[in-house]
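Dear colleague,

Thank you for sharing your sequence with our group. We've completed the structure prediction you requested, and as agreed, I am returning the results in plain text so they can be pasted directly into your records. Please verify that the sequence below matches your submission; if there's any discrepancy, let me know and we will rerun it promptly.
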Amino acid sequence: MKNRKLRMGMIGGGQGAFIGEVHRMAARLDGEIELVCGAFSSDPDRSRASGKAFYLDPARCYGNYEEMIHRENDLPADQRMDFVAIVTPNHLHFAPAKLALQNGYHVICDKPVTLTSEQALELKEIYDNSSLIFALTHNYTGYPMVRQARAMIRAGELGTVRRVMVEYPQGWLTTRIEESGQKQASWRTNPKKSGKAGCMGDIGTHAENLLEYVSGLKITQLCASLHTFVDGRLLDDDGSVLLRLEGGAHGLLMASQICAGEENNLRIRVYGTKAGLDWCHESPNSLTIRPLDSAKYILRTGVGDLSSAARAATRLPAGHPEGFIEAFANIYRFFARAIRSQHSGEVSADMDRDFPTLEDGIRGMRFIDRVVESAQSDLKYIDF
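Please find the predicted structure tokens below.
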């Protein structure tokens, strides 16, 4: 495995899929991974047509994920896939992830990890009895300046964290476009496919994961308010959550998909006793630091004495923008390194394991459950 690329099989993500090509670009970027097989659609003919378009061996373009896993098992060890990438809607995460783990394949999966918490915990039982690697694509944690923010907080440069605010406004669901046949809107607003939460499950979980990743603090209690502004929509399209965090810090999380004119304006601010910091997805190469007793300053990707974590996630010379694909690719990069280390028996460096895991996925499912429960409760705060 040291002298070859890792072999990837893909479930979902065929031609025309929203996120499939993003995964393929991210996996290719560092030259460590090659796509060798896939079940790219629930329609066998479309799956095989996608495989042909991706220049794959027709014999390894499968009609469904069960066929893919079982037929890959029949191949010699030096030919079969090493891991599975699951890039399907939420309700189709659990079954292929379970079968892949049961057959000894590492897994990288879109978020949220499953449709329900019960499914996530069932995956955990299988995973805990294996030596496999499981990564979740909370890709915003892959940005160099996000990792710089985390490193500075860990080093105590902000002092004791008191306040964390994270917001994720989008505007694409301001009208009921799911009625027009828009594929992404159709399944993301359908509780049978998306789960019990809409906006909070889709982008609220990204905000929750980013908050815990950067601050290093777990949510202990929350008080949520969910809204459905668009008439006839079955799931929330807007929400706000008050948070209590470890160590006595407080937080605020806002996620909305009805903020007209917004694209993907994810932002996190953390304030401690010594300084504050501010990172925004729309300017991802910049991290603003606000010391208590001096002027604010801006750190830039690839410039100056940054943390080892930020440097490890940086590919380009300073002044050359790195963005969404590069951050997404960092999840694949460190996932691949973890697999190589495990197969070689070497102990991997901490930063080589710096990617969201199944445990993050379980916390994301718990977040969805507690937010929905809180929004329906008369209690002010409920335990996380």
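Summary note from our side: The domain at 6-132 is CATH 3.40.50.720 (Rossmann fold).

Kind regards,
the structure core
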